[in-house]
Design brief:
The chain has 282 residues and is α/β, with parallel strands linked by helices. It contains twelve helices and eight strands. Helix 1 packs parallel to helix 2 and helix 1 packs across helix 12.
Amino acid sequence: MAHKIALVLEGGAMRGLYSAGVLDVFMENDINADVVYGVSAGALFGLNYKSRQIGRAIRYNLEYAKEKNYMGLYSLITTGNIMNKEFCFNKLVYELDKLDFETYKNNPVDFYAVVTNIQTGKPEYIKIDDAQKDMEYFRASGSMPFVSKPVEINGNLYLDGAISDAVPLKKVLETNCEKIIVILTRPLGHNRKKKSQLPYKLFYGKFPNFVKTANDSYKMYNETMELIEQYESESKIVVVRPSKFINVKRVEKDKNKLQSIYNLGMTDCIKQLDKIKEYIEY
Protein backbone atom coordinates (compact mmCIF):
# COMPACT_ATOMS: atom_id res chain seq x y z
CA MET A 1 0.00 0.00 0.00
CA ALA A 2 1.33 3.44 -0.93
CA HIS A 3 1.25 5.97 1.88
CA LYS A 4 0.75 9.67 1.44
CA ILE A 5 1.60 11.08 4.89
CA ALA A 6 4.17 9.54 7.25
CA LEU A 7 4.94 10.39 10.85
CA VAL A 8 8.37 9.63 12.36
CA LEU A 9 8.53 9.68 16.17
CA GLU A 10 11.88 9.87 17.97
CA GLY A 11 12.23 8.28 21.40
CA GLY A 12 14.02 9.67 24.43
CA ALA A 13 12.35 8.14 27.49
CA MET A 14 10.26 10.79 29.27
CA ARG A 15 11.17 13.38 26.63
CA GLY A 16 8.66 11.41 24.62
CA LEU A 17 5.91 13.35 26.38
CA TYR A 18 6.90 16.20 24.07
CA SER A 19 5.76 14.06 21.14
CA ALA A 20 2.62 13.11 23.06
CA GLY A 21 1.75 16.81 23.28
CA VAL A 22 2.35 17.26 19.56
CA LEU A 23 0.24 14.22 18.67
CA ASP A 24 -2.64 15.38 20.84
CA VAL A 25 -2.68 18.66 18.92
CA PHE A 26 -2.64 16.63 15.70
CA MET A 27 -5.67 14.63 16.83
CA GLU A 28 -7.52 17.74 17.97
CA ASN A 29 -6.94 19.31 14.54
CA ASP A 30 -7.59 16.23 12.39
CA ILE A 31 -4.03 15.93 11.15
CA ASN A 32 -4.12 12.33 10.04
CA ALA A 33 -1.11 10.34 8.91
CA ASP A 34 -1.31 7.15 6.87
CA VAL A 35 1.71 5.52 8.49
CA VAL A 36 3.63 6.02 11.74
CA TYR A 37 7.13 4.86 12.64
CA GLY A 38 7.65 5.02 16.40
CA VAL A 39 10.93 4.41 18.20
CA SER A 40 11.17 3.57 21.90
CA ALA A 41 9.08 6.19 23.78
CA GLY A 42 7.91 7.35 20.36
CA ALA A 43 6.27 3.96 19.92
CA LEU A 44 5.01 3.67 23.51
CA PHE A 45 3.38 7.10 23.58
CA GLY A 46 2.67 7.22 19.86
CA LEU A 47 0.37 4.22 19.90
CA ASN A 48 -2.24 6.51 21.49
CA TYR A 49 -2.39 8.31 18.14
CA LYS A 50 -3.65 5.12 16.48
CA SER A 51 -6.02 4.37 19.37
CA ARG A 52 -7.26 8.00 19.18
CA GLN A 53 -6.90 8.63 22.92
CA ILE A 54 -6.17 12.32 23.35
CA GLY A 55 -4.49 13.05 26.68
CA ARG A 56 -3.93 9.44 27.71
CA ALA A 57 -0.11 9.54 27.69
CA ILE A 58 0.20 12.59 29.93
CA ARG A 59 -2.68 11.48 32.12
CA TYR A 60 -1.26 8.14 33.19
CA ASN A 61 2.28 9.46 33.48
CA LEU A 62 1.13 12.14 35.91
CA GLU A 63 -1.08 9.72 37.79
CA TYR A 64 1.58 7.05 38.30
CA ALA A 65 4.84 9.01 38.16
CA LYS A 66 5.59 8.23 41.81
CA GLU A 67 4.15 4.71 41.83
CA LYS A 68 7.09 2.43 42.67
CA ASN A 69 5.73 -0.36 40.49
CA TYR A 70 5.53 1.85 37.39
CA MET A 71 9.17 2.45 36.53
CA GLY A 72 12.37 3.21 38.36
CA LEU A 73 14.93 1.72 40.72
CA TYR A 74 12.45 -0.41 42.68
CA SER A 75 11.26 -2.10 39.51
CA LEU A 76 14.83 -2.56 38.29
CA ILE A 77 15.88 -4.24 41.54
CA THR A 78 12.82 -6.45 41.87
CA THR A 79 12.21 -7.41 38.22
CA GLY A 80 15.41 -6.64 36.31
CA ASN A 81 13.53 -4.10 34.18
CA ILE A 82 13.37 -0.37 34.85
CA MET A 83 9.86 -0.47 33.33
CA ASN A 84 7.75 -2.93 35.29
CA LYS A 85 6.30 -5.37 32.77
CA GLU A 86 3.30 -6.41 34.85
CA PHE A 87 2.34 -2.83 35.75
CA CYS A 88 3.08 -1.06 32.46
CA PHE A 89 1.99 -3.66 29.95
CA ASN A 90 -0.78 -5.42 31.79
CA LYS A 91 -2.35 -3.58 34.69
CA LEU A 92 -2.04 -0.11 33.14
CA VAL A 93 -3.33 -0.93 29.65
CA TYR A 94 -6.11 -3.28 30.79
CA GLU A 95 -7.30 -1.74 34.06
CA LEU A 96 -5.90 1.59 35.25
CA ASP A 97 -6.00 3.63 32.03
CA LYS A 98 -7.27 1.27 29.38
CA LEU A 99 -5.84 1.34 25.92
CA ASP A 100 -8.61 1.32 23.32
CA PHE A 101 -7.48 -1.85 21.58
CA GLU A 102 -10.55 -1.95 19.36
CA THR A 103 -10.05 1.55 17.97
CA TYR A 104 -6.35 0.83 17.50
CA LYS A 105 -7.16 -2.30 15.51
CA ASN A 106 -9.82 -0.65 13.35
CA ASN A 107 -7.85 2.53 12.64
CA PRO A 108 -6.42 2.26 9.08
CA VAL A 109 -3.17 4.02 10.10
CA ASP A 110 -0.25 1.61 9.69
CA PHE A 111 1.91 1.64 12.82
CA TYR A 112 5.50 0.37 12.90
CA ALA A 113 7.47 -0.06 16.10
CA VAL A 114 11.25 -0.01 15.65
CA VAL A 115 13.21 -2.60 17.63
CA THR A 116 16.87 -3.64 17.69
CA ASN A 117 17.65 -7.32 17.20
CA ILE A 118 20.60 -7.85 19.53
CA GLN A 119 21.68 -11.02 17.74
CA THR A 120 22.06 -9.30 14.36
CA GLY A 121 22.56 -5.75 15.64
CA LYS A 122 20.10 -4.52 13.02
CA PRO A 123 16.85 -2.58 13.31
CA GLU A 124 13.55 -4.29 12.57
CA TYR A 125 10.41 -2.40 11.67
CA ILE A 126 7.46 -4.30 13.07
CA LYS A 127 4.02 -3.50 11.69
CA ILE A 128 1.60 -3.75 14.59
CA ASP A 129 -2.03 -4.07 13.54
CA ASP A 130 -3.21 -5.62 16.81
CA ALA A 131 -1.70 -3.95 19.87
CA GLN A 132 -3.20 -6.53 22.20
CA LYS A 133 -1.55 -9.42 20.38
CA ASP A 134 1.78 -7.71 19.76
CA MET A 135 2.27 -5.57 22.89
CA GLU A 136 5.65 -7.22 23.48
CA TYR A 137 7.06 -5.40 20.45
CA PHE A 138 6.12 -2.07 22.02
CA ARG A 139 7.84 -3.21 25.22
CA ALA A 140 10.91 -4.27 23.25
CA SER A 141 11.12 -0.93 21.43
CA GLY A 142 11.25 0.89 24.76
CA SER A 143 13.54 -1.53 26.63
CA MET A 144 16.61 0.58 27.36
CA PRO A 145 19.96 -1.25 27.44
CA PHE A 146 21.65 -1.94 30.78
CA VAL A 147 18.40 -1.43 32.70
CA SER A 148 16.19 -3.86 30.78
CA LYS A 149 16.30 -7.56 30.04
CA PRO A 150 16.24 -8.41 26.34
CA VAL A 151 12.70 -9.16 25.20
CA GLU A 152 12.38 -12.55 23.52
CA ILE A 153 9.82 -12.80 20.71
CA ASN A 154 9.67 -15.78 18.36
CA GLY A 155 13.20 -16.82 19.28
CA ASN A 156 14.68 -13.37 18.67
CA LEU A 157 16.08 -11.07 21.36
CA TYR A 158 15.24 -7.39 21.18
CA LEU A 159 16.11 -4.12 22.90
CA ASP A 160 15.53 -0.40 22.37
CA GLY A 161 14.95 0.54 18.73
CA ALA A 162 16.87 3.77 19.25
CA ILE A 163 20.14 1.84 19.39
CA SER A 164 19.97 0.88 15.72
CA ASP A 165 17.71 3.55 14.18
CA ALA A 166 16.78 6.39 16.50
CA VAL A 167 14.98 8.44 13.83
CA PRO A 168 14.05 6.19 10.88
CA LEU A 169 13.81 8.88 8.22
CA LYS A 170 15.90 6.89 5.73
CA LYS A 171 13.58 3.91 6.12
CA VAL A 172 10.55 6.09 5.47
CA LEU A 173 12.21 7.69 2.43
CA GLU A 174 12.53 4.20 0.95
CA THR A 175 8.74 3.83 1.05
CA ASN A 176 8.16 6.82 -1.25
CA CYS A 177 5.76 8.63 1.05
CA GLU A 178 4.61 11.93 -0.41
CA LYS A 179 4.78 13.88 2.86
CA ILE A 180 6.89 13.26 5.97
CA ILE A 181 6.52 14.87 9.39
CA VAL A 182 9.34 14.20 11.85
CA ILE A 183 8.77 14.78 15.56
CA LEU A 184 12.04 15.09 17.48
CA THR A 185 12.60 15.32 21.21
CA ARG A 186 15.87 17.27 21.07
CA PRO A 187 16.28 20.90 19.94
CA LEU A 188 17.91 22.01 16.71
CA GLY A 189 21.67 21.40 16.62
CA HIS A 190 21.76 18.46 19.02
CA ASN A 191 24.34 15.83 18.18
CA ARG A 192 25.42 12.68 19.96
CA LYS A 193 28.99 12.25 21.11
CA LYS A 194 31.08 9.12 20.99
CA LYS A 195 31.04 7.21 24.28
CA SER A 196 33.21 4.54 25.81
CA GLN A 197 32.79 1.10 24.23
CA LEU A 198 33.54 -0.69 27.48
CA PRO A 199 30.02 -0.80 29.02
CA TYR A 200 28.50 -2.48 25.97
CA LYS A 201 31.40 -4.93 25.73
CA LEU A 202 30.97 -5.86 29.39
CA PHE A 203 27.18 -6.22 29.28
CA TYR A 204 26.65 -7.59 25.80
CA GLY A 205 29.92 -9.30 24.87
CA LYS A 206 28.00 -12.35 23.65
CA PHE A 207 26.38 -10.18 20.99
CA PRO A 208 29.24 -8.57 19.02
CA ASN A 209 26.92 -7.28 16.27
CA PHE A 210 24.86 -5.43 18.86
CA VAL A 211 27.99 -4.02 20.53
CA LYS A 212 29.22 -2.65 17.19
CA THR A 213 25.82 -1.13 16.38
CA ALA A 214 25.57 0.46 19.81
CA ASN A 215 29.05 1.93 19.62
CA ASP A 216 28.40 3.32 16.13
CA SER A 217 24.90 4.61 16.90
CA TYR A 218 26.12 8.17 17.48
CA LYS A 219 27.41 8.32 13.89
CA MET A 220 24.10 7.18 12.41
CA TYR A 221 22.18 9.60 14.61
CA ASN A 222 24.32 12.57 13.62
CA GLU A 223 24.10 11.64 9.94
CA THR A 224 20.31 11.43 10.25
CA MET A 225 20.18 14.86 11.91
CA GLU A 226 22.19 16.31 9.01
CA LEU A 227 19.79 14.70 6.55
CA ILE A 228 16.78 16.02 8.45
CA GLU A 229 18.14 19.57 8.42
CA GLN A 230 18.92 19.31 4.70
CA TYR A 231 15.44 18.02 3.79
CA GLU A 232 13.84 20.56 6.09
CA SER A 233 15.73 23.43 4.45
CA GLU A 234 14.50 22.19 1.07
CA SER A 235 10.90 22.02 2.37
CA LYS A 236 10.75 18.30 1.60
CA ILE A 237 9.76 17.45 5.18
CA VAL A 238 8.31 19.25 8.18
CA VAL A 239 10.01 18.92 11.55
CA VAL A 240 8.52 19.60 14.97
CA ARG A 241 11.23 19.79 17.61
CA PRO A 242 11.58 21.35 21.09
CA SER A 243 12.07 25.11 20.96
CA LYS A 244 14.25 24.84 24.03
CA PHE A 245 16.36 22.27 25.85
CA ILE A 246 14.37 19.72 27.84
CA ASN A 247 16.05 19.05 31.17
CA VAL A 248 14.54 15.80 32.36
CA LYS A 249 15.70 12.47 33.77
CA ARG A 250 15.08 9.30 31.80
CA VAL A 251 12.81 8.17 34.61
CA GLU A 252 11.40 11.48 35.77
CA LYS A 253 9.20 11.63 38.89
CA ASP A 254 8.62 15.39 39.01
CA LYS A 255 5.05 15.89 37.78
CA ASN A 256 5.59 19.57 37.05
CA LYS A 257 8.48 18.71 34.72
CA LEU A 258 6.43 16.04 32.98
CA GLN A 259 3.57 18.45 32.45
CA SER A 260 5.91 21.16 31.16
CA ILE A 261 7.42 18.80 28.56
CA TYR A 262 3.97 17.88 27.31
CA ASN A 263 2.88 21.52 27.30
CA LEU A 264 5.96 22.49 25.30
CA GLY A 265 5.04 19.89 22.67
CA MET A 266 1.54 21.32 22.41
CA THR A 267 2.75 24.92 22.28
CA ASP A 268 5.45 24.29 19.69
CA CYS A 269 3.02 22.34 17.53
CA ILE A 270 0.29 24.97 17.70
CA LYS A 271 2.80 27.58 16.50
CA GLN A 272 3.53 25.43 13.45
CA LEU A 273 -0.01 24.28 12.82
CA ASP A 274 -0.69 26.45 9.78
CA LYS A 275 2.64 25.44 8.25
CA ILE A 276 1.93 21.76 8.85
CA LYS A 277 -1.57 21.96 7.37
CA GLU A 278 -0.30 23.82 4.32
CA TYR A 279 2.45 21.24 3.84
CA ILE A 280 0.17 18.20 3.94
CA GLU A 281 -2.61 19.78 1.90
CA TYR A 282 -0.42 21.16 -0.88
